Amino acid sequence: MASKTNGVFSIPRRPVYDIFWKTMNATAIRANDRSVHQLKIVCVSILAFFVLITALAADSTNLPFLSPVFGDNMVLQRGKPIRFWGWATPGETVRVELDGRVATAVTKPDGRWQAEIKAPAPGGPYTVNITDTDQTVTLHEVLVGDVWLCGGQSNMELGLARARNGADEIKAANHPEIRLFTVKQRVAYAPTEMLQGSWKICTPQTAGENGGFSAVAYFFGRKLQEELHVPIGLIQDCWGGTPAESWMSGDTLHQLKDFDAPLAEIARLHAKGGAEYGSFLMHWLDENDAGNNLWSAADFDDAGWKTVTLPGGFTELGIGDVPGIGWFRREIMLPDPLPAGKAILHLGVVDKMDTAYLNGQWVGASSWVENPRAYTINDGVLKPGKNVIAFRVFKNKPAGGFMSAGDQLNLELGDKTRVQLAGEWKGALSADCRPPHPLPLTYENYPTMPMVLYDGMIEPVAPLSIRGAIWYQGEANFTRAHQYRTLLPAMIGDWRRVFQQGDFPFYIVSLPKFMAHRDTPGTDGWAELRDAQAFTARTVKNAGLAVTVDTGEADNIHPKDKQIVGERLALCALANEFGQKIPCTGPTFVSATQMPGAMKLRFSHTDGGLIISGDTLGEFAVAGKDRQWHWATAKIDGDSVIVSSPEVAAPVAARYAWQANPQATLFNGAGLPATPFRTDNWPGSTDNSKPW
Description:
- By secondary structure, the chain is of the alpha+beta class.
- Among the domains are: 3-60, no CATH class; 295-432, Sandwich (Jelly Rolls), CATH 2.60.120; 588-674, no CATH class.
- It contains 13 helices and 37 strands.
- A hairpin with a 2-residue loop joins strand 17 and strand 18 (361-366).
């Protein structure tokens, strides 16, 4: 029978030679009139066959009998054939039984089996039994309803604890018919079949643990469950800071031609072997940092290093105005006993990449996210008396490195006292990276490589039967917004191909407000990214857009108001996928008509009429043939808005909410905001932006 370790069933392997011996005996009986020589040939051929089968199955030796995407407490998709898969001995017959329905599959030479079974009625709980000759797996408390894949970057990943009223929401998150699955974050440089995660019933504990399940996904699922009264399964499959191309297949990216250079580098690194960071910078540091894994040690002898002063330090090392990698070390004395509470290492702003160690232990690293840096120190790292701090800093700009005032460089102890770290340090040059020394393709230290999250986190979930997907991403691509008009539709096509369920619904969150409001109209990458999202929703079959331009925070890329985001996504699903006669989108630009000294902009989805949220109707801009933009006065006229400006005698183009943080006040009577738009197709600020 199967053994179960950490919730994963492993496959007991029959010795290949036992199988061979049984086969040889049977062959000998059938061939008793042949010569011994002929029998040897037959037997050797059979042995060769089994050796080949064993080689083909080698990759599945440590794979479980049943993929971990299946488990107790899960939700199976209603109304579709349900696909189960896993790994077993090649040639083995696997039997799946669910609510009296039975399906069988024969394991292929590569060790993988897959069976399809008709879904029973929504609800449950059901029990699923999967068996072969040697083992049985039983899944308990299984429901049948709708399963949604929830992807994107940090705003999809942001947990319920960090959302508005997060603590109260977690206390109330007692929804036994909502089930949660978090795909463990993993980078892969080649297709992979395995993932880690487990299904959990939605309770205050499971919704809130480890910072909380995705807030957007939770609010989306809660709204659907309330309206549809069927079980909802939510699969959180996201990673903060990641661009769309990381979630796409290598085959598709090769076809787009924009990513040939990074894909070639990934292939080189994959062939080389070693760690799979998902970051070009981390591999570059491994290959170019002479101090890597050496100079961070607490007992490393730095007596021969130069004396330098921080902030600063690079001039003394000879690379004051050129790229390079520097290491800095210092001993500090801490009180006995150490103050209770968490200690935090503050480095201020660092450009471009820093890695921090205390007593030889890694405590933090960043190339962007923690800016200024603030690394929380785990218990047991610091000790009374002597402690050793080491920093590795890669700077790629003349004025890079430690960029904050000296008082920002300190170690904050648990009692909030601070040990100031500015002053004398020991420093050493690890790499002088002035030309022609090669620099990394990109400078992020978290996963941003093309395709590595598709291989590591999307393919292993497929081809699970699902209802559809929701997607909250784009922040990492806004400097290449024009390219996103191609990337996002191609990514949707990738996901639909790998899940093999046709054009399942795909609903996109249009980015909220961010950054300071701009006082003059013009081009804007954030607005162009929203436009690319809207373009995708218009042109891709069965796609939809949840507009959130009325939400967001100027100084926070992770706004707290996630309930409105999740519920607007749910409106898209309820109206488009489930046929409810409800408004699901706000006013949407349809056409423009030129008038004397003005333009008339007509809208669809004006449910309840066009209305103004606030005191004035904004934010519209118009331009004449000179393509110079000016703010416009706007007034509602039925299902249209008439815009004009005294500075534009004959407007030929208009835009609405065309900046990162606009004053977007046009709504419909259903309370949904208008989609930002432009009537022109003039070149944008990101049209020629490429990452390589």
